[in-house]
Amino acid sequence: MENPIKNKNILLGVTGSIAAYKAVELASQLTKAGSNVDVILTPAAEKLVSPLTFRSVTGKKVFTDADLWDTTSHIAHINLALPADIMLIAPATASTIAKLAHGQADNLLTLTALAIRCPLVVAPAMDTGMYSNAFTQENLEILEKHDITILGPDEGHLASGLSGKGRMLEARVLLGSLRFLLSRENPLAGKKVIVTAGGTQEPLDPVRVLTNHSSGKQGYALAQAALDAGADVTLISAPTSMTPPEGVKTISIQTAEEMHTAMLKEIKQTDAVIMAAAVADFRPTSKKAEKIKKEGKLSEIELEATIDILKELGEWKRSHKPDLVLIGFAAESEKLVENARKKLEQKNLNLIVANDISRNDAGFAVDTNAVTLLFKDGKRQDLPLQDKEAVAQKIIDILIQFMQS
Ligand SMILES: Cc1cc2nc3c(=O)[nH]c(=O)nc-3n(C[C@H](O)[C@H](O)[C@H](O)COP(=O)(O)O)c2cc1C
């Protein structure tokens, strides 16, 4: 599945908040992602940022109140409203929020917001006092009651120099939220998918851990691809530097045991599990309460096996839920296909993604991956070297087929 915002008609309404400059970045990112972005500015927004700035990043005409009363354009607000797949007002001032809550339509933006047939999303931006004001809060409640999605605001530094709640969400977050909202009717809608990611850490003492080189990139790309396909996604993540995609439910864990506990809590309502995490096979038998001293002797670390989560899931699938889809990863440095096929069978998986970690352009910590897919029915498919997002999309396309068969 491609990015759900690609080729979508997105109406971006910009109002008179100082955060209007951030909407330029948003319009730029949306355009780069392949959306068709029509920007509407209120008269107050025009004073803070020029229509030409938006035109320069979207490459398209930008709409202002001049278009509303222009005798050469035919009913601008209806022409903008009808083809829209989603309308986002970002930033949304207290004044525009008040107008929306009461159906007031005295400029091109508020008029278009009344005329749309698509979902409306609002990203407030204002001073903390204005935001907590009882009128603003009541107006936001009215919007929510009418199924208008409110995104943010965030806490943090405000243009006034004060700090508090009122900051507009960053462009990256707003784009991720639109991506999520536009995916909700895709083929995996209503399906619950668990993705695990990252390398678990097994503590030796309060400062040291046993871990591996997993970056979490492939797992996070899988979580995003499953969201794009419409699924409700739970990401059980070991520590990584990655930012979870918007719309995902993230459970942060450190050890294999914590991952196992989180999995048991989630598994009952789940339709598919993709185990992309590099879970420790061994852990220190005991965690020392105090830091092991350099001066002390440490010639050996005693280890014990961790629980094989995927194997346990495979047994549970056999005894309780035969239609549970299980997808595993096998990172191997030798006899790739042979070892991976063994795991596929032993763990009762639908698919195993075999990763040759002896290559330096695939597997751990790099942006690309070259994998071999092995299916339960004996089929094998070798995917060429490609970025981890493309590998993730391919795996989710296969998951969609599993779910539909
Ligand atoms: C420099 C400047 C910054 C402003 N920033 C905000 C803001 O962040 N949020 C807000 O609700 N109003 C803000 N205002 C007030 C609005 O611009 C004003 O209420 C205006 O009428 C809003 O019109 P609009 O919602 O149609 O764009 C600001 C005003 C100025 C002069």
Write up this protein.
- A hairpin with a 4-residue loop joins β19 (371-375) and β20.
- The chain has an 8-stranded mixed β-sheet, sandwiched between helices. The protein has a 5-stranded parallel β-sheet with strand order 2-1-3-4-5, sandwiched between helices. A two-stranded antiparallel ribbon has the order 6-7.
- It has helices at 20-32, 43-48, 51-58, 65-68, 76-81, 94-101, 108-115, 128-132, 134-145, 171-181, 217-228, 256-266, 309-319, 336-346, 388-404; strands at residues 9-14, 36-41, 86-92, 120-124, 149-150, 154-157, 163-167, 192-197, 202-203, 209-210, 232-237, 249-252, 272-275, 282-284, 303-305, 325-332, 351-356, 368-369, 371-375, 380-382, 386-387.
- The radius of gyration is 25 Å and the shape is elongated.
- The chain folds into 2 domains: 9-181, Rossmann fold (3-Layer(aba) Sandwich), CATH 3.40.50; 192-404, 3-Layer(aba) Sandwich (Rossmann fold).
- It is an alpha/beta fold and 405 residues long.
- 35% of the residues lie in helices and 22% in strands.
- The mean pLDDT is 93.
- It binds flavin mononucleotide.
- The site of flavin mononucleotide has 16 residues, from α2 and α6.
